[in-house]
Structures are given as C-alpha cells and as structure tokens.
Write a structure and sequence with these properties.
alpha+beta; two-stranded antiparallel ribbon; globular; 3 helices
Length: 99
Amino acid sequence: SITKERTEVILQGTSSLDPNDPTAVWEEYDFKCKPGDLKRRPCFITPYHYRLDWLMWFAAFQTYEQNEWIIHLAGKLLAQEEETLSLMATNPFAGRAPP
C-alpha cells in the first residue's frame, strides 16, 4: 500500500551570509525523478528508477540519524561536487558561489 500522507525531504541552500536572517532566500535543489513540483509531469523510466530519488522517498519516513548518507549528500552539494550535482535536475547555484 501507499501512504496516505506525502512527506518528503527537501534540500535547500542559501547565499545569505546569515542563514538565520529572516530575509535569507533559500533555493531548492530539484531531483530528476523525486516527487516535487505537483505541476511537473511524472518521471517514468521503467523498468529503471533513479536510486537517489527513490532513497529520498524512504528517508522522509525516518530521521537523518537513520540516513547518515543525507549529511554526506548535503556536504557534497555544498562543495558543488560535479559528480553529485550530475544526479540533480537543477543546481540553483550554477555559475555562482557555493551556498
């Protein structure tokens, strides 16, 4: 069965020097196939699936302590590691300083 409630992990970054500043603008990293924008057409690549996007679905049901790989993923995004960014649909910081 499928859950009745939609929970998801959303990864965001900011260029603000003070991330706690209420005026800080947070920008979202989009995944290639993870559910996100409700207006986006679903991603179908059967019988294959994007493993990272699939893991993100399961991570939403647990804490980050149970999914330590998310911390490593966030670190690689902060470092703008090209191999990691290639797994994403968009990099909101492309051509700019890292978040």
